[in-house]
Write a structure and sequence with these properties.
This protein is α+β, with helices and mostly antiparallel strands. The chain has a 4-stranded antiparallel sheet with strand order 1-2-3-4, with helices on one face. The N and C termini lie far apart (about 40 Å). Bound molecules: zinc ion (ZN). The site of zinc ion has 8 residues, from loops.
Length: about 80
Amino acid sequence: MSLYDFPCEYCPGTVHERVLDREPINHHRGIVILENVPIGVCDRCGAHYVAAPVLKRAEAILKSDRPPGRTLTVPVEGY
Ligand SMILES: [Zn+2]
């Protein structure tokens, strides 16, 4: 069963599951990049949706004492 398949909040499109190579997941504890992750993508406007189990996985990584598989350095700058 898909985590997604529901109407888009932003347009008349439908959200379908797509497994993405790499997607940054925003959690209130921080940002985690998950690989091969099932994300909901609207077939019309392309909006991304993150299901609760994916957020839970991101949270578990952020809360874990174990180092993650890899760490990237991400540039941050004002627009
Ligand atoms: Zn949409």
